[in-house]
Amino acid sequence: MQIDKPLSDVTIRKLKPDPDKRQEVRDLGAQGLYLLVQPTGALSWAYRYSRNGRVLKTTLGPYPAVTLAEARRQALQIRAAVANGADPQRDKKATKAPAEVMTVRGAAARFLKEHTAEKNGDRWAAETRRYFEKDILPAIGDKPVKDVGKADIRDLLRAVKNRGEHGAPIAANRTLAVARKLFRWCLSEDHVDVDPTVGLAKPGVEQQRDRVLTDDELARVSRAAEGMTYPFGPAVRMLILTGARREEVGAMRWSEVDLDAKTWTLPSARSKNGLEHVTPLSDDAAALLRSLPRIGHSQHVFTTTGSTPISGWSAVKDRLDAASGVTGWTLHDLRRTMATGAWARR
User: Fold this and answer.
1) According to the model, what pLDDT value does residue 99 have?
2) How big is the chain by its Cα radius of gyration, in Å?
3) What are the angstrom distances between the C-alpha of 188 and each of 106, 145, 276?
4) Contacts 24+ apart (CB under 8 A), 317-325
5) Which of 191, 192, 247, 331 is the most exposed, fewest CB within 10 Å of its CB?
6) What phi and psi values does residue 137 have, to the nearest 5 degrees?
7) What pTM did the predictor assign?
8) pLDDT-derived band of residue 83, with 50, 70 and 90 as boundaries?
9) Which bin fits 98, alpha (ψ -120 to 50), beta or left (φ > 0)?
10) Which domains does the chain have, with CATH numbers?
């Protein structure tokens, strides 16, 4: 397998094993370094070097326990040793890799691969990965899991809770939930002796929302959305017309839409319950979709780049508030409002 750029954790995650043979992927970021991809999906590092006209190989350890950065460091170390006359095949000191240290980053990668995606589906795995990448890994990703204590988790949660002008208490609660799942898994796999999340209470107070927009409020929000340009205005209108979730509409693909049959088929990988869901499209919803521009050959219905779904919903919500004069609501309240049939009574 050939990848014409240095490896990254993102490209490594996207590698697909060949069930019939082992593959070797060269890392252009370090001469002689290879990632071995087993038919089972297991990944490990190897380093090739020349000595006396012979090409030899030494193994460096499994990924992600041995991170990309650590594998490159070992590759440079071995290369320097060979240049000074050492033979890694015979010199145990030159080839001995450091004892495996399971970092939070390595544990998270293994957890996502072996537990989350397999048992909970791709959608939950993506959501869990988002909490790892946004807050957990930047804060404690390089720390050995055995060294993580309650103080580390409390500091992490405090930083998330106090983020931004108004704080993010709900995000802090979700971050704790993800961290708790990770360390319970680490405990079951004997990576840690103690779960540092035990006894920690949710840092944020969650209130059960029951906000339903009135007919007048919904009409004002709809008119405000009509005044916004593609892709955000039409996306909000689609939320109102379908009662679907924000993430479902934001990531809608043209391949999911059948305008002739007036249906939108949400695949199981993107649905909250892991089941395929078919949404009938009203005449207004179908007409809205027919009016939308196509960005190049993109499959995304709502996109600014052509390659990714839309993001930045908070800014969209602020613009809707300013244009409609309706405040104290969330985009998810549109789904609740549609479920009550409020729009039908308009």
Assistant:
1) 53
2) 25
3) 16, 13, 32
4) 319/224, 319/228, 319/232, 320/221, 320/224, 320/225, 320/228, 320/236, 323/224, 323/227, 323/228, 324/217, 324/220, 324/221, 324/223, 324/224, 325/220
5) 247
6) -65, -40
7) 0.48
8) confident
9) beta
10) 9-95 (3.30.160.390), 104-188 (1.10.150), 215-345 (1.10.443.10)
Give me 107's structure tokens: 């544990």
Q: How confident is the model at residue 95 (pLDDT cuts 50, 70, 90)?
A: very low
Tokens read off for 337: 């409002």
Q: Is residue 94's pLDDT more than 70?
A: no
Cα–Cα dist 294/279, whole Å: 22
**Residue 122, token pair as written in the block:** 């791709």
